[in-house]
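job 3f2a | input accepted
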Amino acid sequence: MKLAKKVFETALGEGRTFVLEHEAKDILKSYGIPTPPYATATSADEAVKKSREIGFPVVLKILSKDIMHKSDAGGVKVNLKDEASVRSAYDEIMANARKYGESKGVTVDLSRGVLVSSFADAGTEVIVGVTTDPQFGHAIMFGLGGIFVEVLKDVTFRLIPLSENDAREMIREIKAAKILDGVRGQPPRDVDALVKTIMGVSKMVQENPEIRELDCNPLFLYERGKGAVVVDARIIIQGPKPDTASSH
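job 3f2a | predicted structure (248 res):
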């Protein structure tokens, strides 16, 4: 809880209402939500060193207070299998970020460098998210990833806080729930790990109501007993409230 508050204070102090990816993953980990191994690097040499420590293949992603949507800025390079490709990817990401800034008329802050993350083994892709309704407050959303959420809108919602039974019910309620039981010879997925993740997100939002939106997307779910990992995480927080006293 203290870690999240500190991260949010830093973000708002820099004039941003979004959390950088390494910060988001630090918060997730503090609530027992697993992510692939990751580190930060502020030079190509350091990115290579961190990649060696984490183990190839890796993913590099830009970390900047001026870039919320990393892919739009050419700030993501995946499945980097050796030192040469990491070095080249780092330089390319920095060049792309500068160009992106120029196109927006801003000088992009590149001082935080990149996130270096293990390239996670593919699993069944699911999404766990949080939205805020002005009337009902925070709600947690669950669905299978890809076409299921984008095209079929096969998702379920529950208000926060929720019980473990609520979490299990919302997982069973999606139309494609049978996929998690294992189809066409596939082993069943680790639903217990998914429930644990949903409960961790619920607790995080309960303790940090300034979270306005949260996306764990994709979350890779592995076969039963092998867990789950959040590959990408996005947290949007409530901005500072306007000072009404000074407007009178």
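job 3f2a | The radius of gyration is 19 Å.
job 3f2a | closed
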